[in-house]
Amino acid sequence: MPGLQDTDPRLLRAFVAVATELHFTRAAARLFVAQQALSRDIRRLEDRWGVRLFVRSTRQVTLTAEGERLLAPARRAIAAQEELAAAVAGAGAQDRPLVVDVGAPASTARRILTAAREAAPGVEFVARFHSGLAGAAAELVTGELDVSFGRFAGLDPQVRAVLAHRPVRYERVAVLLPAGDPLAALAEVPLARLAGRELYAGAGNPETTEWTDFARRLFAGRSIAVAPPFPRIDGEEEFVRLVLARGWTVLASEEFTEVPGMVLRPLTDPVPLSPVSMVWPRTLRHPGLTALTAAATTLAAPGDWLHRPPGAWLPEPDRGFLPPADAGREAGPGG
Which one has a higher pLDDT value, 105 or 49? Predict the structure, then answer.
């Protein structure tokens, strides 16, 4: 077959993506390329191989007999190339820092990073503090970032396909209230007591869409509203200033920044849980990743991080990405 020996791996990926999706628009989104560029790559591959891979019509895309025959070998070739890339990256992994986005100074991710640094002093970790897994995911895909934390199920399916994840904690969801609010006198706030209120949940920030989606799912049918979109807020200092200036009530988690004059109260009836996963590119190989995973496992058991109270609330899309209830208790530090 002409041109087979020097086939560009990018063209192979284009072929496999279209063959998997049988839809050029979805395949282009999966590869983060324009649809026209993807169509050109398919034509270039067909010309190089001298075969027709797809039958296209206005309504559907199907594989030809030749396309079906070549799909499995193309997948194996891509897998081999990824294995080689991972091996090459791993060979030099000891020599480069691991870039980890922990979101905020007060966070589950920050605790894990601190424990990993103590357990693996020979590994250089570079911390970043940018809230929002949705924003971090784009940099995970491009390789600008190595690890981030957040709600994995809230990401686009095409993005999830190129990322690996490990659930590390179910954080109890809370509400941040002005100290003078009548609800601040309660040890826990029943969700029903928030009916008729409007809570800030990051709407308008493209980097925290997974959290805004979580809030909308939690508030649905409970007469609680998400505050209108607001420009992205950069930095803890600016967030605190705006919360106080605008008098916001904020949907938060049990790990949250202290705000003067505000109190944090866990929600109940039911107990909402925010699933936090460690997320990284599937091809990443680095000793720092191993250290972070071990640190998360060690912290989970004594802190009951993976315990789900009876009747706890989780978003429906998240259930397929989570370990069994009480996995942290059962696994123990060595799990």
Answer: 49
